[in-house]
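Thanks for the sequence, V.! I ran PfkB family carbohydrate kinase right away. Repeating your input here for the record:
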Amino acid sequence: MSVDVVVAVPAFMDMTFVGLEGLPQLGEERFAGDLVRSPGGGAITAIGCARLGLSTALAAPVGHDAAGDLIGPMLEAEGIQLTGPRSARTPITAVMPIGPERAMVTYDPGVRARAADVASLSPRAVITGLSQLDVVPGNTRAYVTVGDDDARAFAGRLPGAASRATGLFIEQREALVLTGASTAAEAAEMIGGRVKIVVVSLGSDGAAACVDGRAVQVLGYDVGPSIDTTGAGDLFVAAWAWGDAAGLAVDDALRWAALYAALSVRVPTGAGGATHLEEFVAEGARRGLPAPPERVT
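Predicted structure:
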């Protein structure tokens, strides 16, 4: 069985404290307006891909625990195929969004996707982390995301395998850690010496990109007040995978992906912010984005 996209990024359960006015100091207690449990990490990307009409599988192990029992059915309800063995425990992140920022605390048992599970699905594309490019089958498009852990692990020494990536997606803070650059544009250019397409997210200000050595500025979108920015980068990658599969030109795919990421911050949780295809296309049309070609499957 072949799928459009396999997500090989660890899936978390996010526990999001909604409505915080500030973070507690040591010894202090703060109260949230709500607590929402939802799929997080790579599961956010998988949900975005599925809601945009891509056949999607998640190769990241989900735990044999209460968290896994909760998010597993949520993912399957989205039409996402779960593949590979379950692990003992599910990674968990406590998310505390405050305005345009958020703080997070994570427990990660460190279990990762297996190359054999990914290859068994004959994917057109694989979304994975910088440290897991080895799970991508040969001649398969690789979209690489770089989180805080990989940025610190590979600071100043981008691995040779990075040149296999079709595209690399990273937030500004992590890009500066990874490269030692002083600006997002400089970081994009440095990584662009090894990777065909590099996107450094600037949050609500859009992104700085490097495409085949060409600097590209991706403008942001005004979507109203930010409720929760968690998962915006994950959903940028999901929309990029959709645009690439649809045959959009690179610059247009970047604009569509930036819009998808921007739309996600209007509600709590990354999974909740993954817009469905019909609404997304309507938003893009309203903002003057070029209509995506009819996708041929």
